[in-house]
Design goal:
Helix content is 79%, strand content 0%. It is mostly helical. The protein is elongated and about 60 Å long.
C-alpha cells in the first residue's frame, strides 16, 4: 500500500472524531480541566470560535479530498492502493459514526439540541462524501482496465455515498478487484505486490 496516500488521508479520517471532540469541548468545558483549558486558552471561552475552527477544518479536508480525487485520476494511481486506503479510512471512522448516531438520536429528543443533531448529520455526510471519492477514483482507475462491467461500476459509485452501504460495497469492491488483479497477472512468486 502506498504509505504517502495513507498519510495524506489521515486528516480526512479525523473529521468525525474532531466533531465529537468539538461537541465534548462545548458540553464539558466546565466539568473537566482539559476541555476547560482548550476552551479558555485556545478559543477564548467562545464556542463559536471552536465551531468555526471545525467548519474550517472540514472545508480544508473537503478541498483536500477533491484535489486528491483529481490528482489520482490524472496521475493514474493504482486502483488497489486507492481501494485499500478507502477501506481503512471507512473502517477507522465506524466507531465515530456509531457514537455520532447515538448522540444525534439523543439530541433530537429536546428542541434545544436539534441543531447539534443536524450539525452532526452534515459532518457525517461530508465525511462519507470525502471517503467515497477515494473509492470512486479507484473505480475510475478500473474503468481504464475494463476490470468491471458498467453496471458494477455504477452501483459501487452510487453506494459510496450511502451510510453503511459504503463500507460494505467498498469491501466487496476491494475483494473483487484483488481477485481480478490476480487473474490478470501471471502466477509468479517473485512478482511484487501492490499492498
Amino acid at each position: 500500500m502506498n504509505k504517502k496516500l495513507f498519510v495524506i488521508s489521515v486528516p480526512i479520517v479525523l473529521v468525525p472524531y474532531l466533531a465529537l471532540f468539538t461537541l465534548a469541548t462545548v458540553f464539558f468545558s466546565t466539568k473537566f480541566p482539559f476541555f476547560n483549558y482548550i476552551m479558555e486558552s485556545v478559543f477564548d471561552s467562545n464556542a463559536l470560535y471552536l465551531i468555526a475552527a471545525l467548519l474550517l477544518y472540514c472545508l480544508l479536508t473537503g478541498v483536500l479530498s477533491i484535489v486528491l480525487f483529481f490528482v489520482s485520476i490524472y496521475k493514474k494511481w493504482d486502483a488497489i492502493s486507492l481501494a485499500k486506503t478507502a477501506i481503512i479510512m471507512k473502517l477507522a471512522q465506524v466507531p465515530a459514526y456509531v457514537l455520532i448516531f447515538a448522540l444525534g438520536a439523543v439530541f433530537v429528543i429536546t428542541i434545544f439540541t436539534i441543531p447539534f443533531s443536524i450539525g452532526l448529520f452534515v459532518i457525517d455526510c461530508l465525511s462519507v462524501f470525502m471517503t467515497g471519492l477515494f473509492v470512486t477514483s479507484s473505480v475510475i482507475a478500473t474503468i481504464r482496465n475494463n476490470t468491471f462491467t458498467l453496471k458494477e461500476v455504477i452501483w459501487v459509485i452510487l453506494l459510496q455515498f450511502v451510510f453503511c452501504a459504503d463500507v460494505i460495497s467498498s469491501v466487496i469492491f476491494y475483494i473483487k478487484l484483488k481477485r481480478a488483479n490476480k487473474q490478470q497477472t501471471p502466477n509468479n512468486k517473485f512478482a511484487s505486490s501492490n499492498d
